[in-house]
User: Fold these one by one.
Assistant:
Number 1:
Amino acid sequence: MDGTPDPTGCENIYIVVRFVDENYVIKERLLTIATAVAGDAGTLTQTLIAEIRKVGLSTDTILSQVYDGASLMSGRHGGVQRLLQDELGREIPYVHRFNHQLHLVVVHAMSGERAIEDLFNICNVLYTFTRKPIVAAHYQGNTLKRLLEQRWTGHLATVHIILKSFQDIVELLRHVENSASFPADLRMEAAGLLSRILKPSFKFHTQIICKILSLLEPANRMMQSEEMDLQTAVQLVNTAKECVEALRTGKVFTEMWSECAQEREDDIHP
């Protein structure tokens, strides 16, 4: 169960049921998309029960409940998961959506590191800069992606494109900086961005983030499958964790830093 408010203030809710059929095959179906007049835990709980009963299902057969980690849904005392158990008078285990846990960990880790935060701030400025019509007409590389705080997969797409189109971005910034046909403020902005992305640390941090998020992407994608089970999800996360930990060696650091430093020399003296 999840939901989002619409412009009128009503809460649009979707309810998904996951069940085992008579052949013990796991299936997942969208039960309904409902609307609630409010988005508080009590209203959502009553809406959930009413919609389940409306389609002829019995609440007696509910085995577990799955939401994200928002306190409205997961709260131990006043969240939907607790209120549902109180309303039905029995224990119904709550499971925090595993893929969402992975997302929260990744977002928290990236936001807690100042250098990575600075990296994505530059990425955002680059995105805005290349979207300006007068600039976009001269850009030959792949279109940069807009960052979304709610989805780290957008961060992976962003750093991947920057690495792939890095030389195109450098050439664009040099062209804008040195061409009198552009306004002075754009030339100054281009010069500032150029100086930032030509630092070895920018390329290094971009490659590190790309490597880490690329290692997590298979687990993220596979855990969205209808066939996914909890045991396999745990194994996927542990495997991804081991792959990330394998990057934490002096050899990997030295190789990546040397590569970035050499590429910077090539960019400065093409």
Number 2:
Amino acid sequence: PPSSQNNEQGSTLRDLLTTTAGKLRLGSTDAGIAFAPVYSTGTASGKSGRTMPNILDDIIASVVENKIPPNRAPKINVKSEIKEEPKDDKKSIQDDCSKRYSDIQYSWICDKHVLWLRDHKNTNNWKLFKECWKQGRPVLVSGMHKKMNFSLWKAESISLDFGNQQADILNCKDSIISNTNVKEFWDGFEDVSKRQKVKNGETALLKLKDWPSGEDFKTMMPARYEDLLKSLPLPEYCSPEGKLNLASHLPGFFVRPDLGPRLCSAYGECVAATKDHDIGTTNLHIEVSDVVNILVYVGIAKGNGVLSKSGVLKKLEEEDLDDLLRKRLKDSSELPGALWHIYAGKDADKIREFLQKVS
């Protein structure tokens, strides 16, 4: 191509599309779109005619025609590329990591599907995380609460500061939502006797959903917002200003997902007063973006019918837990706060098919 054309070629996708669109001849369309369509001539009946193409196809066609010299067309050897793909991603990543990241304390848990980073202070954690993130694998980082101001996250502290606020409270058992004073929720967080009762006299399993969220969180709870930001794991990816956090670098004309933070609080369900102990406080769902969940506080309930710590541990041991997690439960310094069921993204279609059969 002419040298002047080379100088105009953009270095980013946005520049490329802009410079390309600027050189296209204006085409007259019913929609009034100022792009030059690439028309196909001739029809099945033999009459000449023109069909309206996809605008993006026009731009790509122009890029291919005007930007890439014939002698620089890329050569693709599909056969050789397929051979380079690892046969067992899980095995290859583990073998590779054991050699390259010997300075990082980590384990593989949940049948080696989940990476457990055991030292939250290691500044090289992000390098190993990157290998799992590329494959959409969940990662657990323990010890993040040690960097936080514990007093800010206690139930009584939040109730004292924001008890007069109104919010939606969800009864996880029968999905009744009510707009009520959040003090009622927090007063019952660690005292079962102060919790709401449902019609049959059972203790309600309540959840304070996404209160507060996003900019409201930052405005309403500035001290807690700052405490949360300084405690984020893998800040290169998770911090709003992280150099590898794609969302923080999106141009202003993109509609960003709600990046939070959101405070999600729920009662524990290991209470004898609740007959059904298999109620989840979060429904099965798919997130629209990658999510960081930090367990900031675990309340220990008191009152009639509450399981002791040993009873809670016994209940958790009945679950299909990884051996390393079972060992962690027996550590007296550890306090279990949540039981998660996480499914691989590649299995989403199987789960949908199952749910459709059930319904």
Number 3:
Amino acid sequence: MMQPNRNFTRTLIVTERSFRLVHHDRSGFYVSPPMNIHRHAHTFIRIVLGLSSTKEAILGFDTSVQWKCDHETGRKSAGTITTVDANRQPVVYELKMDRPPFVRAGLCGRGTTCWYAIHPQTGEEVLIKDTWRESSKTSEYPYLVAAQGVEGVVQVLSFQDYCAETNAYRPADFVTKNYVCRTKSRVVMRCYGKTLEHFTSRFQAISALRDAIQGHRGLLSKSILHRDVSLQNILMGVMGAAPGTRGILIDLDMAIWTHADLSVLRAERGIGTPRFQSVSVMRNLALQLPPVHDHLDDIESFFYVLCHLVLLFDSPG
């Protein structure tokens, strides 16, 4: 979605005799049965009025994100995002207009959107991450809480769950094959540098990779297995970062507890970035009983990140 503050979008298919409502969100889409315009004129008018509403929530926008526009140019000049702090109290962050949000491409799926904002009390730059997880799965928050104080791992400030749910956008009796309900959550984290691919020197790249590996080891000591080590999930530390925080491991969406049931620990399709996955995980996904995805698979992923840097970059940039 090109509008990062949108939860869903709706449109209308109209022919000379019938019309259908089409709805898209992070779980996919549904299309209403065709209805005759003349027999259901009242419904047709109601739908047109709904799609023309001035209320942002009805149009599918996340109303916790608000913009101010310049009257002359019509461009967005400022913005805010509302969530909760560590004490579950409402807090309004000012969005950084010089840093556009990162939006994961693709209509369906996690739809990760990362906003850059300023903490209203401390003035600290923070990262606010919105993501749509499968409702049957655990959010990354318990792992982030367990990782507090671990060097080389992203640090959480607050978390808000159940911001939205795709079930709420569908009829109560909606049933279709392969449909998966998704829940939107919002987590506020400390802000770090750019992803590893933006390194400016060989020393910076290797230092960041080393500290991210150390962070992975720290996670493992907390019984957390990351499972999604990739070039994009390693950030460089802030300017002048001390050893231990020169590289930051992020994105615990795919993490699991190492003491979980064996069925949960097995290699799973759709987990991780194929380019950086271990040979064992890639080869055995087709098996009826895949092997366990363990810390050695993640270490192999770090090795492929290093190979990516060494073999595909001529120099920084």
Number 4:
Amino acid sequence: AEKLVVAKMRVPDYIILCVEDTADWKHGATREVVMKADPDLSRTVIVNTKLDTKVPQFGSPSDVEEFLKASIVSRLAPHKLGGPFFTSVPSGRVGGADDCLFTTDDEFVHACADNEEADRGTVKDRLKSGPATSRALLPRVGLSRLRGFLERRVDECYRRNVAKIVPLLQAEHAAASKRLAAAEQDLEALSMDRLKASADAFCDGFCAALKEAIHGSVVAPPSSFGETLGQENLAAGSFHDRCAMAVSERGWERLVGSDVGNKDHRLYGGSQYHRALREFALATRCLRLPTITEDEVANAAGVGDTHDGV
């Protein structure tokens, strides 16, 4: 539990409320724990509780004055944020049970105010050093004095940090606005009209590029998109490899070079298409014709409605 509390107190923006229940300022167990996170107590406000039970323990007014001045604390921690403040609260609980002294929170608040008034009256009566001493020490007595001090310190910290916080907030607002604008632009791009327009633009571009490639173009690099006749045959096959030809291998190669042409050039689009047509026309001329027997002719003639084919 102590490790958790100390880790929490190490946050540099926090004000630490050190609540002690002691009548001897030389011994402060709570302060020792707080100093692990705030060694010089520069962020710490010291509060001494149960004042209504401590004042009667002192026999002389000087003892009361020494206790309220807390000179030892000032010597040990001259840079403390504030205090010590002296408070006391009613011991009763708030609620509807039988053992509860107060039925509402307002009753408890009024009782705290009554305790503060009684404590201030008791301290004023016990101090015999004069009005100056009372004016110096009474502002430390009471919950309202502690609350007012804390509210002023928080307000000072807030105003001091506004100069640093506002630029950070402005930068974060600008960054968030840019992200929002980008998100809205992306959402607009996902609309049906935008998607249709993008699809139409892609189709138009594709058709224009295809038309240009068929008519002839040097926009696309032949090294990436073009094929020689040999590469085309490896990918799609050749008529010479699939059909019985009436010419020899060497004769076919010679005819391809003379009748088809551009066999070693990398072509694409319309140029490659027309080369394939020339290769097809050459293959149809070079196909080996099958031998047809008289029986096949007779059977093919068949019988018609008006004549005997055979």
